[in-house]
Amino acid sequence: MDLGSSWVILICVVGALVALKRVLQRANWWLYEAKLGELQYALPPGDLGWPFIGNMWSFLKAFKSTDPDSFMRSITTRYGRCGIYKGFMFGKPSVFVTSPEACRRVLNDDEAFQPGWPKSTMELIGNKSFIGISYEEHKRLRRLTAAPVNGHEALSVYVNYIEEIVISALEKWSTMGEIEFLTQLRKLTFRIIMYIFLGSESEPVMEALEREYTALNYGVRAMAVNLPGFAYHKALKARKNLVAALQSAIDERRKQRKENISSKKKDMMDALIDVQDENGRKLDDEEIIDVLLMYLNAGHESSGHTAMWAAVFLERHPEFLKRAKEEQEEIIRRRPPTQKGLTLKEIREMNYLSNVIDETLRLVTFSLTVFREAKVDVKLNGYIIPKGWKVLVWFRSVHLDPEIYPNPTEFNPSRWDNFTPKAGSFLPFGAGSRLCPGNDLAKLEISIFLHHFLLNYELERLNPECSLMYLPHSRPKDNCVAKVKKIPYSTVKKQE
């Protein structure tokens, strides 16, 4: 073969590769945009990217780096700050909404938007959980479960047990030396939520269930690759084990009822088995299990991470730590001598501690996004979201917007003094009819933990410059290795 023929072949190969690249780059346009006809010209700015992959590669690359916000920043830099962009996420044509007004509209307009979580997420969380059911079923399920979880009477009952286990855990940690602070907090909040759900369980059972839930949670935002070694495959196995454990607990509870064996403490499982709507319809076992798994995320995962970050942030900022501690000491001073332990009323008077928690929720943004789906063609911010397209409400962009929160990456709980965020600009638990149903319980756990931590302990991180991970949630890679040290408590009377 002469030199001229070789060059011809090389040019043909390069040309074919260039042509293939252009075809692949336009594939999603042909599949999802071209068929919209004139409607395609009203789509938000953006790029659906390559087939199957879309924006997922750049998303995962950013969130596995030290700068997760580079993902959305690259989009806004390219297309401007219009608050709405098209993309391709989790195998579906999608629209990101990043402005408070757009987020509020999507989260509150149940006529135009419905849950749009990826199929893989639904398989892990459950088709009968809050995130997957219809608007009508959601209202029914929320109405039936609201009182057992977030009702005043329920929260008042939970205070004593949460306080008891927090005091015990902190005392234990202070004698253990070096610990993974986040790991211990997650175990603590898991034990609390499982007690509320199922009553007392043995320590080995608790730890086994907590490991299974951790594996499930890691798979929720992973690529849906059901092959050994991948997070999603492990998560599916974990869900199967959790469902089996919860089903066994339900079967045992029903058996005890038939045999007239009653427990002294009525837990959430009892409440879910007993509750019925106005038509006499009760929850079936699948609904009970999916509800319990859903509440685990709000009452365990978010609580543990938020409590850790609040303690870390306060340790970094002595001026805020001092103010938060003084408030807790004042609560003890005002307490009648005959009172033992916290009350729900006292917790609701912790105004500055509430600011600390809200600032932590804003800065960390435990859930970076929620998924919706357009039920009809929807006009938003001057653009069209086609029917069937996914809508990702991007909380991180809202919570870190410098026009809403000056110096947004700084921890400053005092920014909340006499400040009420406008609708759509503070969304740690979502908004609208699908607001996270366990939000009050989560904040109760965090408040009780921080109350006792601030009064009696301090945190000494052993690797304060440790790098962070951002998936599935923001955390130090070492799970916050630290020592929890007991401190003198002489300024106010000690609780008995």
From TrEMBL:
SUPFAM superfamilies per UniProt: Cytochrome P450 (SSF48264)
Location relative to the cell: Membrane
PROSITE patterns in the record: CYTOCHROME_P450
UniProt membrane topology term: Single-pass membrane protein
Assigned keywords, A-Z: Heme, Iron, Membrane, Metal-binding, Monooxygenase, Oxidoreductase, Transmembrane, Transmembrane helix
A Pfam family it matches: p450
Family listed: Belongs to the cytochrome P450 family.
Name the record gives this protein: Ent-kaurenoic acid oxidase
